[in-house]
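User: Run a structure prediction on this.
Assistant: Running it now.
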Amino acid sequence: MSNSTRIGGYKKPLAVVLAIAFILLVWQLVALTLPDFLMPGILPVLERLSDSIRSGEFYTGLAGSLARLGSGYGIALICGIAFGLLAASLNFFREVLRNVIVILQSLPSIAWVPLFLIVWGFGNKPMIVVVALAAFFPAALSVMNATESVHKVHISAARVMGASRWGLVRRVYLPAVMPELITGAQLAFGNAWRALISVEMLVDFGKGLGRSLSFSGDTGDMTGVMANILVIAVLAALIDQLILERIKHRLLRYQYV
């Protein structure tokens, strides 16, 4: 491994550390200029977070949020990839799907909550569907856009060799769209995470990180608010960097050689 590769490998962790340090510095400076009941400092928030982590209620809320995230995000990825690849082989369907996405993704996912609550009532189902909707659009759109860049000569060659429509999707389109698919999955995760926290704050049902944040805000507990915000931010970063980035490097390892 060359020296430039080693140096490049250190840059990303260093950038993450500097970004965290900058955010904490700004937070503490703001806390020094405002009363404690408006903006608590870092230490009181960390103490509150330490107490919360030792309680079972914290893990109940965390498990509830992760279960909703996993269900909605998983449904969105499966449907987004399937519809995106199907659109690759059906030109008219691709145009229809593209227009549907353009129209519906202009609506905030949280706008669907009243309708889903009327249809399904209070429970996990409306929240999971909101998360799935938020993540579906970037997942499907990234796959659709990637299929348009597949070389026509590869498609023609596969057809000459007798490939069926499913064979084209599996052997030509899917390998070609993999980089954009992974990028779309990461974008979809960001949408899904924000939708999850928003819908949990809005729907007064069950335990979750968003519900805990909303309760702290309703009671004027700013230390609890900042503790919940810290958990939400750190957990999202950990999922993205420790899970999604590792999957990305494993599936696209030839690009990191």
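The chain has ten helices and no strands.
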